[in-house]
Amino acid sequence: MKTLQRTLTIIKPDAVRRNAIGDIIEQFEKNGFRILAMKMLQISKHQAEQFYAVHASRSFFNGLTDFMSSGPIVVLALEKENAIADLRKLMGATNPANAEEGTIRKKWATNIEHNAIHGSDAEDTARFELSFFFAGYELAK
Ligand code: IDP
Ligand code: MG
Which CATH code for domain 4-135? Predict the structure, then answer.
């Protein structure tokens, strides 16, 4: 049975700086994702640390949270059947050196740290990440 899923994606500061917002959103729409909610904002270092708390012990945590708070980002709530896995596929591998042709990271990522886009990796993280950026009423559709 196919089930409708929701996932959270972020167009990261590097992609915003490269004027890639429109191209990336076009990829979401062309690939059947419905945009439920969307906003552009800049998060603080502290907010980035909260969002990425699962990575707190990793060596790249400080650089990652500096990067994610370094400029505006665009956050979107997306809906589709199998949205979580399908978005991960459309994003491509974390390290763009390993990303497949036709993926967003292949086209827009610079390196493993500045990799253009975030996508939730499971149902529980999607729930946490959607509620981090969007209130219930914004997703009630
Ligand atoms: P994902 O974004 O593909 O889910 P994660 O392993 O969850 O990858 O890592 C979160 C983010 O942390 C990555 O998207 C990337 O920006 C950064 N990151 C991951 N691994 C490294 C690394 O080895 N060096 C620097 N940054 C990294
Ligand atoms: Mg991840």
Answer: 3.30.70.141
Partners of 64 in the beta sheet? none
CA 2 to ligand 2 center in whole angstroms: 24
Rounded distance, CA 59 to CA 65, Å?
11
Tens of pLDDT, residue by residue over 37-71, are 999 999 999 999 999 999 999 999 999 999 999 99
114 and 55 in contact (C-beta within 8 Å)? no
pTM attached to this predicted model: 0.98
Domain spans in the chain, listed from the N-terminal domain onward: 4-135
Residues whose beta carbon lies within 6 Å of some atom of ligand 1: 55, 60, 64, 94, 112-113, 115, 118, 121
Ion ligand 2 contact residues with beta carbon within 5 A: 121
